[in-house]
Amino acid sequence: MVGGLNWQREAATLHLTGELDSDTVGPLWRQRQQIMAGIKTLNLSGLSRVDTSGLALLIHLVAFSRRQNVEVELQGASDNLQTLTKLYNLPEDILPAFAG
Q1: CB 31 within 8 A of CB 3
Q2: How far, CA to CA in Å, does 65 sit from each of 1, 2, 30?
Q3: How far apart are CA 48 and CA 96, in angstroms?
Q4: Which residues contact 36 (CB under 8 A, 6 or more apart)?
Q5: Is the model's pTM score more than 0.70?
Q6: CA 2, 50, 12, 65 torsion: positive or negative?
Q7: Per-residue DSSP letters for 43-77?
Q8: What are phi and psi of 52, to 5 degrees?
Q9: Residue 1 reports pLDDT greater than 50
Q10: Which residues have C-beta within 8 Å of that of residue 96, sequence separation ≥ 6?
Q11: Which tens digits make up the pLDDT trace of 79-94?
């Protein structure tokens, strides 16, 4: 693993930093229920890399929140992540629109 993934809760925002890829998604996936409790915003501006595994995790985190009747906003997505979502031609209802 070249980089790592870190997260920090700040009120209803979860800040993700580092790399969100196949090498790093495991710990966040295993703790998703505790980590996502009360989260309304995922701040992605600190991510240096996101691969398809990271994209899949984001989709699952949004779906998990929706099952809890919470709409999550994604902030600070890189151009590369936005391009990746377009390349997969994901329906707009899978991930909320990226905000600033």
Answers
A1: no
A2: 29, 30, 15
A3: 20
A4: 14, 61, 64, 65, 68
A5: yes
A6: negative
A7: EEEEEEEE-HHHHHHHHHHHHHHHHTT-PPEEE--
A8: -65, -30
A9: no
A10: 62, 71, 72, 73, 74
A11: 889 889 989 888 877 8
